[in-house]
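Before relying on records like the one below, remember that each one covers exactly one chain. Contacts with other chains, cofactors or solvent are not represented anywhere in the record.
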Amino acid sequence: MTSIELDDALPEQLDGLVIANELLDNIPCEIAELGAGGEPRYLLADGNSLGPVVGGDDRAWLDHWWPLAEPGDRAEIGITRDVVWAGVVRRLAGGALAVAIDYGHVREDRPVYGTVTGFRGGRHCDPVPDGSCDIAAHVAVDAVAAAVGGTIRTQREAMLALGITAATSRPCPARVRPPSSSTRPASARSPGFREPPIRTS
C-alpha cells in the first residue's frame, strides 16, 4: 500500500492533474459592509461592528469585482483566494492542469449580504469566530479565474472535459444462455472465459 504524506507547504512544482475540492472557500478573507456614509468598511470579528474604511488593494478588488450598492450590503473580499490559487497555478509543470471546485458566484449574481456560514459536525451553524466551528464563504470564481487566465465551467462540464463521466461501463453484448442438462455450467459465462481443466479421480 502506498502512503500519502501531507506537508504544510506546496512543492515547488506540481505535475499531472491538481484538483482543489472546496479549498478556496476555506481561505480567510476580509468582509466589507457599506456604511451609512456610503463608504465600504471592514466588518469586525464580532460580526456586527464596522471598522476602518476599506482601502488599498482590498478597495480596488471590491470596486471591480463586488461593488456594494446600498448601506448594509456586504461582500467577501476575495483577493486572498486569488493569491492562493495563483500560487497553485504558478507551480504547474508543463502539461499539468489545475481545477478548483467550489461553491461560488460571479459578478452578475453576487449575494447582497454575503455568504459567510459556519459548520460544526457537518451541520450549518452561526459563524462565530471563536474556534468552535469551521467558517466558510463562497468564492468569487470570476475573480479567481481572471487572476490566472483561467476559465469557469460547471463541475459537470469540467469533468466531461477531462473525460470523466458517471456512466457505467458498456454491458457485454454476449447473450447468456441458461444451462441445460446437455450443457456445462461454463456455457453461461461470457466469451473469453476459460473453464479450468476437469480432473477425474
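The first helix runs from residue 56 to 65.
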